[in-house]
């Protein structure tokens, strides 16, 4: 704020104050200036309203319109936007995350039917786009193409972004359901013989995104029927169990190999899987635990805790059944 502004405020010079207000209303401010201007404007009363108009809250309809437009750019459902392209999409994703932080108005926007429809459409588009790009790999003669890999990894990173955003909108169930529906096709492609020794970044990123799905379901944030949960785990547990030692081995062979499951990722996935298993019906638990103990890669994930709990529950269930039968047998017969 200029000395003239401060003098005008201090001496109540109306003409100077009016000129200063007009000036401040018309020029841009940086963050530091904004704080000073707001402090000074608060002392001016109604004459400062033109200044305050820049920072006043927008109404629901306008906020919703901005959010919907940003989401369409963030998910590319608005179509390409030359010359900005990925830069605009990344900016839109960042701003959506910012808007979804705790704010008294955002819950009203995120439960709006139109907003939910746009978000679900964006999610569907992202998944189908990723699947399409992934499927095209098997038709490529040159699997070493860096451009191709970067493009596919970007699609998976967009899905990763979605997995961070949707819980704040209570739509993570849609992500998990679509992930489960497409998992068989995704795994069929990445485990194809043609991709056996390439696309390590993609394979690691799949584990990272899958980890968020396992956490959402395993810790009860997304509620799904038991058979659906069994389906997800039986698809992804063998893949994770196989990829972990492969990535470790590649890292040991090549010091510069960047694709390795770090300790935090390993622990979070292992914890989610243990919780996931323990929430299944006992027969399904037994099936998964038996398969785990037969596998060569039984070291990861370590399901010892789940196995111990299953054993305890099995004994307890048998004891309760025996006690219930004894009570029936010993019940007095009334005539």
Automatic annotation (TrEMBL):
InterPro entries: At3g05675-like (IPR038920), At3g05675-like_ankyrin (IPR058039). One of its GO terms (biological process) is protein ubiquitination. The keyword Transferase does not apply. Residues 115-314 form the At3g05675-like ankyrin-like domain. Signal peptide: none annotated. Keywords: Ubl conjugation pathway. The keyword Coiled coil does not apply. Pathway: Protein modification; protein ubiquitination. May act as a substrate-specific adapter of an E3 ubiquitin-protein ligase complex (CUL3-RBX1-BTB) which mediates the ubiquitination and subsequent proteasomal degradation of target proteins. This is BTB/POZ domain-containing protein At3g05675 isoform X1. It comes from Rhodamnia argentea. The lineage of its organism: Eukaryota, Viridiplantae, Streptophyta, Embryophyta, Tracheophyta. The gene is LOC115740875.
């Amino acid at each position: 704020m200029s000395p003239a502004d401060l003098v005008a405020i201090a001496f109540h010079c109306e003409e100077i104050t009016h000129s200063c207000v007009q000036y401040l209303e018309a020029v841009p401010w940086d963050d530091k200036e904004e704080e000073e201007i707001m402090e000074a404007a608060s002392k001016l009363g109604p004459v400062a309203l033109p200044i305050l108009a820049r920072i006043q809250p927008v109404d629901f309809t306008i906020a919703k319109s901005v959010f919907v437009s940003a989401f369409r750019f963030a998910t590319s459902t608005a179509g390409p936007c030359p010359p900005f392209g990925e830069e605009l999409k990344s900016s839109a994703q960042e701003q959506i995350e910012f808007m979804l932080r705790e704010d008294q108005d955002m819950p009203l926007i995120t439960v709006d039917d139109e907003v939910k429809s746009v978000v679900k459409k964006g999610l569907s588009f992202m998944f189908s786009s990723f699947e399409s790009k992934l499927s095209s790999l098997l038709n490529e003669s040159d699997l070493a193409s860096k451009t191709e890999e970067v493009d596919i990894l970007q699609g998976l990173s967009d899905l990763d972004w979605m997995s961070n955003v949707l819980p704040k909108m209570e739509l993570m169930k849609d992500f998990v359901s679509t992930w489960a529906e497409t998992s068989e096709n995704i795994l069929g492609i990445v485990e194809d013989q043609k991709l056996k020794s390439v696309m390590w970044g993609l394979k690691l990123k799949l584990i990272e995104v899958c980890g968020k799905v396992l956490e959402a379901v395993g810790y009860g944030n997304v509620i799904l029927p038991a058979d659906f949960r069994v389906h997800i785990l039986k698809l992804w547990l063998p893949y994770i169990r196989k990829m972990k030692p492969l990535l470790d081995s590649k890292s040991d062979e090549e010091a510069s190999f960047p694709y390795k499951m770090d300790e935090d990722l390993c622990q979070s996935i292992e914890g989610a899987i243990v919780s996931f298993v323990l929430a299944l019906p006992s027969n399904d638990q037994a099936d998964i635990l038996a398969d785990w103990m037969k596998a060569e890669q039984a070291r990861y994930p370590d399901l010892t805790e789940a196995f111990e709990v299953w054993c305890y529950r099995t004994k307890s269930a048998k004891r309760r059944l025996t006690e219930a039968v004894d009570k029936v047998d010993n019940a007095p017969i009334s005539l």
